[in-house]
Amino acid sequence: MKTDNQISEPSIExxxxxxxxxxxxxxxxxGCPHNYSISVDYKMLHELAQTQPIVCFxxxxxxxxxxxxxxxxxxxxxxxxxxxxxxYIWADTASDFILQCRNNHVEFVLPNRLITQTQHKPDAxx
Length: 126
Description:
21% helix; alpha+beta
């Protein structure tokens, strides 16, 4: 039985499918939703990871497939996604990185500045 002073475990609702590689998801902690945008555009993730750490969700293990929260890193030509000393993705080429991300169903949180740029992108057709 849960008492008022216990913190509930966060739950993640499935991301929306938008077809543009960008999705939306809601994290609920203690009943309060916190929105963030996620993506499965692995080429974009590889490019972003070259200059900054990116928060990722990655599958590991077997059925039912557990997920972990990890971070991207790039050093000496190697791009990886890891957490707590466990390396889930390790690749020295963009194509290998993308393949491993697909195989591990990686999703990543879009940086705020990227979301703002995407939302306010001028319409080139005008």
